[in-house]
Amino acid sequence: LTQDKGMTTTDPGEAFAKELAMERAREIFILVDSTKIGKAGLARAGELDQVDVLISDEGMDEKFAQALGKKGTTVIRVHTDAHGKNL
Questions:
Q1: What are phi and psi of 17, to 5 degrees?
Q2: Among 66, 85, 83, 84, which residue's Cα sits nearest to residue 75?
Q3: What is the reported pTM?
Q4: What is the pLDDT of residues 42-82, one digit of tens each?
Q5: Alpha-carbon distance 40 to 59, whole Å?
Q6: Are 57 and 47 contacting, i.e. CB atoms less than 8 angstroms apart?
Q7: What is the spatial distance between Cα 77 and Cα 79, in angstroms, rounded to a whole number?
Q8: Are strands 43-46 and 7-9 parallel, antiparallel or unpaired?
C-alpha cells in the first residue's frame, strides 16, 4: 500500500479479483497492518481514492494518514497492547 502505486499484492489473480469486487462495492473498507504501508507488491489491486475507510494499527505513518484524510478517506487506528492484542 503506497501513495503512488495504491493497493498492491504479489498475486495477479488476487489483484484482479479485488479490483472487480471494488468496482461493484458501494463502500470500500480495507484493513492493513502498518508494516505493509509503504511497500508495494507486483500487481496493482486498486487505487487509494477508491477507499472509503482504512483501518490500521497505531504504527501507521501520520503523514500517510493525513494524506488519506485529505482525499476523503476515513482513517481508523486500532490501539494494541505490548503483545499486539487489540485494546
A1: -65, -40
A2: 66
A3: 0.84
A4: 999 999 999 999 999 999 999 999 999 999 999 999 987 76
A5: 18
A6: no
A7: 6
A8: antiparallel
Contact between 61 and 38 (Cβ < 8 Å): yes
Start-to-end CA span in the chain (Å):
25
DSSP classification of residue 87: -
Do residues 9 and 18 lie in contact, with contact meaning Cβ atoms separated by under 8 Å? yes
Angle at 43 between CA 40 and CA 45, to 5 degrees: 90
- State the alpha helices, DSSP H only, in the chain: 12-24, 62-70
Question: Which residue has 479485488 as its cell numbers?
Answer: 18
Look-up: residue for cell 503506497? 2
Please report the pLDDT score of residue 79 as a whole number. 86
